[in-house]
Here is the input.
Amino acid sequence: MAKCVLVSGGAGFIGSHVTVELIEAGYDVVVADNMSNCDMTCFEGVQKIIGRKLPFEKVDFCDAVATDKLFSDYKIDAVIHFAAFKAVGESVEKPVRYYKNNLGSFLNVLEAASAHGCHNVLFSSSATVYGEPDKVPVTEETPRKPATSPYGATKQMCEDILNDVVKATAGTEGEIRGILLRYFNPIGAHPSALIGELPRGVPNNLVPFITQTAIGKRACLSIFGDDYPTPDGTCQRDYIDIVDLAQAHVYAVRRMLDGKMEKGCEVYNIGTGRPVSVLELVNAFEKVNGLKLNYKFAPRRAGDVTAIWADPSLANKVLGWTAKRSVEDTLASAWAWEKHIAGK
Ligand code: UFG
Here is the structure.
């Protein structure tokens, strides 16, 4: 019988792509989401891609009773926890909201998983835990830096919570094994253009801002800072294709479910290992899609790190996963998705 994976926050950007990859790899999936930051577009897109209906549960993971019920209603073998708020700037303005939601929901998931014999928990962490690194690329051993936002703090705290729970439950009936995936910058959309990123309001992230500018929803892209100590003066990041990133979850879940883990809690960087500057990304977008983007240079954005990219060799070696898609193909997919939602 196929193993069942619960995807919390499964109607969102990353969760919907992960759902597709899990189904294609032969897993059963239960998608649960409170729909606080998305609509049904991506969940419907997922069903179109896989050609069938999927179980969907509207659950707020901050509700402990509802979370527990989900684990009684389904026999869940592994849970991938995405359900969280993710806007860095908003987290600075509304820290209580972020701590309550992002920590509360994860604690409920851990409690219910442990109580119902679901031993495998994968947490969606972020490169944000490294802060401004002293050395790039960063490995999993690179020390974490103090968080620069409540959002980043919740990622660090959830990492610590999972580590503590793994230690405390080792050898017990409610044993939890954990995998932390630290994502770099996920971009792009599914090649079908049926699912992708759907930011509410003005996008914070670079690629949705680029595609919205190209389609005419925004007048002009501001490139934040041209005087960083990088080759072209703009910040460098590790942009990873969303489908590549989603596939990393399949490798990680398989490792857990096949009993291959060597430690109770394992951590992997999920990135390409390639630094790309903001300007290089803009140029690549223009070139691959054959268009000109209206952009200007603007002052630095508070809180941005100069340069960060992954050393993904641990995930390459241990999980057997590697990012495959070029940044050009990914930017073409992001543009196809923007045109799809604009009905063009
Ligand atoms: N940028 C612009 N103009 C924009 C938006 C972004 O120039 O309109 C620049 C930023 O200054 C930065 C780069 O594009 O140099 C990437 O910015 P994003 O907002 O797309 O991504 P970040 O690297 O800031 O943030 C991402 C995730 C966060 C995570 C963070 C740190 O979105 O969730 O990485 O790991 F916390």
User: Anything to note?
Assistant: The chain has eleven helices and 13 strands. The first helix runs from residue 13 to 24. The chain has a mean pLDDT of 97.
